[in-house]
């Protein structure tokens, strides 16, 4: 099969293959077709000189809110992804069983960017999240809709990758961990992983972790006090170490209130790296402090993580969390998505959710994306 597109001469960083080399990547039929030097172009092949760029598998943002127009927190997936180097946006609970059909028809299906979703166990998802109205959808147990959630998740397995629930003082009020228990029942019923949001107690970080199963994701994992994973002495809480040992995954989910440099410094100093790094992008954090996925990744690069480890959190690791191994890789036969970035050197100001600033010496910048084997929205 002739190649549709060749990315020529870039530095290819693909943690799924432990690959970091200057080489070519070719795409055909919507998939990665070959990797190697001097790949032969056909007369109709689109050949791009990417020798100035780093080529990675298409970045996956494991925590976004892209139900634009359907919820007040939703942002436009195509605009965000083009600027942020993201080829797969995973919406985490914007929609529940009562409004997922609209999300699918009006946003997901027309989108050129791949959108997958965790389905909220609450009937209408995250419906009361704005600058003026802040209603925790898990506060009211009458809104928990496990029967319909299981039906909708089962009927939309092509797009729904798991079940979402938000617990904590701001999202579940005095309901505590009860919504989490309901969501786990649904996840067990449909055989899917769960993503759990955590904010202020109740419930505690430890209570949430105790309920999570292997393959479940705790998002907002590096949040500030209270409900931080680190102790006052700068060590990692035992419950956190035990949860990782049994297969619970730890996701950043930066957002408006869920990532602190202080927490991250303590966790990284102990060798506890996040499994996945995600932006939790929505209307209330897209202009700061999260901004986008590459900015979120840059913060960890500036805090000492190696570039390949940072890229892994948004490619192969995220794909494994989604149970979609065809994503997050440039192995031949994988989905034909790629992201082009540069790492600029200088002095860059970064801010976390509590207002602490970090001056970093590096910044990851999106330079273009390939989706389905085609150059998408060239800059």
From TrEMBL:
Positions that bind Zn(2+) 1: 63, 65, 164, 280
Domain Amidohydrolase-related span(s) in chain numbering: 54-210
Site description Transition state stabilizer, residues in chain: 166
Keywords from the named record: Metal-binding, Zinc
Annotated Pfam families: Amidohydro_1
Keyword hit for Metal-binding: yes
Binding residues annotated for Zn(2+) 2, in chain numbering: 164, 197, 220
GO molecular function, one term: deacetylase activity
Modified residues (N6-carboxylysine): 164
Protein name: Dihydroorotase
Species in which this protein is naturally found: Bradyrhizobium cosmicum
